[in-house]
Design a protein that fits this description.
By secondary structure, this protein is an alpha/beta fold. The protein has 9 helices and 8 strands. The chain has an 8-stranded mixed beta sheet with strand order 1-4-3-2-5-6-8-7, sandwiched between helices. Helix 6 links the parallel strand 5 and strand 6.
Length: 228
């Protein structure tokens, strides 16, 4: 039954006007016409472009788009069957500023031009705790360098995770590179100063973590001074 549902969602994604699934050739042969033109061609405006990387079911992409109609939100994930839910919700609610991109995040610099992105959210990524999986960690030096390339100067990166390991790893990496962290907290639901964007939108898995009283951490930083 699960495989049938996936196939159904894949087919439905192909009919959605807010879902984009570039081919490998488009990505690697620099033939993606949307690169450098996301705001103009897809959102039909010049509003800020915000990415949610590893968007899962798209709760944050949809939630932020509902809160900020003057910004464009693009959820990025390789799992089309997951973000199907967010894409469908956006269509059903006539949410014009929320779209989804099926792509591998390690190729993010091939999908956007330098300085094209205004802001990045990374919500509950796999912490990849095993050493041999470090290269897949979404906040390792390789990924941070690519984020810096596509971000505008002073563009903000948000990391929200249930992993104390990933929070500490990322914080240490940034501080070791001389990056001034704008904000950090290891338990946002016990912090009365947490911004509503951080605690007011919850993902499917976040709700489950909160049910078992698991701490949710948050980091906010810029990459202008990142040199690694």
């Amino acid at each position: 039954m699960a495989s049938k549902n996936k196939l159904k969602r894949f087919k439905e994604n192909e009919t959605f006007s807010n879902v984009f699934q570039p081919t490998r050739e488009q990505v690697f042969e620099n033939a993606l016409e949307l690169k450098g033109n996301w705001k103009e061609r897809i959102f039909k405006n010049d509003n800020p472009l915000v990415l949610e990387l590893g968007c899962g079911k798209g709760e944050y992409t949809v939630g932020l788009a509902q809160r900020y109609p003057d910004k464009n939100y693009l959820g990025v994930d390789t799992k089309g069957a997951r973000f199907w839910r967010g894409a469908k919700t956006a269509i059903e609610t006539n949410l014009k500023n929320a779209c989804f991109l099926r792509a591998q995040i390690e190729h993010i610099d091939k999908l956007f031009e330098p300085n094209e992105v205004d802001e990045i959210w990374i919500t509950f990524p796999d912490p990849q705790t095993k050493f041999q999986r470090t290269k897949h960690r979404l906040t390792n030096p390789k990924f941070l360098s690519r984020y810096k390339q596509i971000l505008k100067p002073q563009g903000m990166v948000h990391l929200k995770t249930d992993s104390e390991f990933l929070h500490g790893y990322t914080l240490g990496l940034l501080e070791g590179a001389g990056v001034v962290v704008d904000y950090a907290h290891h338990d946002i639901y016990r912090n009365t100063y947490s911004h509503e964007d951080v605690v007011g939108i919850q993902t499917f898995y976040e709700k489950k973590y909160l049910e078992i009283d698991k701490k949710i951490t948050y980091l906010r930083f810029q990459l202008d001074d990142w040199k690694m």
